[in-house]
Amino acid sequence: MSWLKQTFTSSIGRKFAMALSALFLVIFLLQHFIINFTSVLSEKTFNEISHFMGTNVLVQFALQPVLIFGVIYHFVMGFVLEIKNRNARAIKYAMNKGSENSTWFSRNMIYSGFVIFLFLCLHFYDFWIPEISHKYIEVLPEDSTRYFGEMVEKFHDPLRVGLYALSFVFLSLHLMHGFQSAFQSVGARHSKYTPAIKKLGTLYAIIIPAGFIFIALYHHLTAL
Amino acid sequence: MSTANGLNLTLKVWRQKNDKVKGQMETYQVSDISPDSSFLEMMDILNEKLINDGGDPVAFDHDCREGICGSCSMYINGEAHGPGREITTCQLHMREFKNGETIYIEPWRAKAFPVIKDLVVDRGAFDRIMAAGGFVSVNTSGNTQDANAIPIPKADADKAFDAATCIGCGACVASCKNSSAMLFVSAKVSQFALLPQGKVEAKERVLNMVQQMDDEGFGNCSNTGACEVECPKGISLDNIARMNREYMSASFTADKK
Lengths: 224, 257
Ligand code: HEM
Ligand code: SF4
Ligand code: FES
Description:
Chain A has helices spanning 3-8, 11-41, 43-55, 57-87, 104-107, 109-137, 146-154, 158-185, 194-222. Chain A is mainly alpha-helical and 224 residues long.
């Protein structure tokens, strides 16, 4: 076995790569949030940035593939780890008190992750597939002012807004544990900065999902 | 002789004849247990009763009965070594329990720790991990250098000592939802990696010990931190972070493979 394969199929290597993909997603989500938030402030700015992101070669053909790979890796490895971890204990305890020594978030990453996965399916169906089809399959002419309207249109449906909000609650639960956990997985832990990372993680896990919910609700309510 | 504050308890204990057959929980009653007795003394009383009744006593591991050997592995009421922090089962006292309480007593559960009999599990996997690299190779030819001749920063010595207090009990594995051995292995990796004598073989050590850990069938680390909370010696997650760094950097820089 090559040393590289040996490294990334080891327990530590898998979690290292899992954490890298997760940290990439955390950064991606932050930029996604900032861009979406401009839609609340100015339709024009939102359209400009969306047009840039949707047509820039670097974003489309360098960053987007990395993102897709990152999501798929994270998702697949999430299940691989879960299966391996379950197999490591054949007989369960008759009495087990996990809450005495660990958080609910940390013990249920696979469930919060699975809800995020379902959300991503809906999200791809809503935005990503129409985008790809618009640009690369049907090759429709680009109208740099279409983005805002397309988004507001999606948030008309109260069921969709509800599903989005619910999914973001699960994203919040995922990140309550995940944010600081990713730093531990890559070995970044020190009494100097780990307490700050934990606080930042909690803030991120609350503000970003709550912000996404706010944006969806804002467009739903203003368009009524 | 009945005492005023003696405890009457219902015990649900895992019974299993050997590693071939399936086991099951059995229910026993014990009465008039002194709150001052240790958990293992309570088990002794149960066993005396079982023997007097012509039954088979419950097999459990124990040796020092003072919290230093790490053998008294019992999963009590859903926690390794029962309620209480930084203690082993032999340091747990019956005053932690209420009269009339039902107590679940189970063996460590992990595929890598097969049950031998009742509450006794085979922790040979830990020995094999140690054999894979948990040592410093020295020639004991008579001219071995005095360890004190090598200056070691106090902070490093303290951290190495803290890691070295791990008694290999396996409570970390038992408590982890993934049956991961990361806390144990990281303590053993750290106690050497922090010292100049251990640095010489540090890369090979971490690669070999982690590989052995994976081969034994322990799970991956989800950073839940259950191990650190249940560890009788307060081994810190700092050690796991250190092992993660040591392992990844050794993977990219070691000459091996
Ligand atoms: C596609 C759906 C997703 C699934 C199925 C999923 C699943 C998982 C699982 C099972 C873990 C725990 C792995 C372990 O410790 O054993 C995990 C960790 C994590 N996830 Fe996700 N996840 C998903 C999406 C996301 C997203 C969108 C983000 C961020 C925006 C994210 C951020 C994290 C972080 C930060 C960690 C911690 C990594 C670590 O412990 O090193 N996940 N995920
Ligand atoms: S790390 Fe703690 S719980 Fe794990 S074997 Fe060592 S002493 Fe026991
Ligand atoms: S019997 Fe030695 S630690 Fe409990």
